[in-house]
Design a protein that fits this description.
- It is a single chain.
- The chain is of the alpha/beta class and 233 residues long.
- It has a single domain, classed as Rossmann fold (3-Layer(aba) Sandwich), CATH 3.40.50.
- The protein contains seven helices and ten strands.
- The chain has helices at residues 9-26, 40-51, 79-86, 106-120, 156-162, 177-181, 196-203, and strands spanning 2-6, 29-33, 60-64, 66-68, 95-97, 125-128, 150-153, 171-174, 185-190, 221-226.
- A seven-stranded parallel sheet has the order 1-10-9-6-2-3-5, with helices on both faces.
- It is globular.
- Bound molecules: 2-amino-2-deoxy-6-O-phosphono-alpha-D-glucopyranose (GLP).
Length: 233
Amino acid sequence: MRITEVANYTSMSEKAEKIILREVRERPLIMALPTGSTPEMLYSMLVEEYKRGKVNFSEVVTFNLDEYVGLSPANPNSYHYYMNERFLKHVNVSESYIPDGMAQDLEKECADYENKIKREGGIDLAILGIGGNGHIAFNEPGTSFESRTHVVKLSADTLKENSRFGEMPNRAITMGIGTLMCARKIILLASGKKKARALKMMMGAITEEVPASVLQKHSDCKIIADGEALRFF
Ligand code: GLP
């Protein structure tokens, strides 16, 4: 795991943008994408670059990390809505997949999602944020490192943390930790002092109690974080 320290949120976003643009220009790319406040500026930078004709996403396929159970794509709190508004509707990605939190049979939806990832050839580049308790995607503390896409009951910590976006369902579909660890390259973004504790835990013992700690075992994982997020280092 390599750590790149940057000055602030803007430089974190710029650094991530540069890496993504390089990958997109080099080859067809299957990406895993996060939501949350961390990647917001990154998405707007990528959209700007596309609008200026500097990048073409026509050979890019995206898979979202997660989605709430029970929210329709029209619901502004859903990750479908987030992704469409901030990124997908503005660019020309060839295919974008987001778990269907409205599916009648959620177990089947999870299995289908894994199959779609497999069918597309696996994730080349996963962009991740991190939750205050060390969660990645919606894999809460205690989730098996072997897990694949599954339905999760969100912890009280996560519900509280995400309540700033409004009242959220307490279940979600998330790519598993095993799914994420199969990505060829992983970039985790973190900015601000509210991430400092999570980053410290993540660099500590590798344990299922700290989901992000598994990333220490990945052969190509880069953390891009600002000084505030890295203040305990
Ligand atoms: C949610 C998402 C995660 C994200 C986390 C942190 O729980 N499921 O993928 O990393 O929030 O969000 P933020 O970037 O808003 O701090």
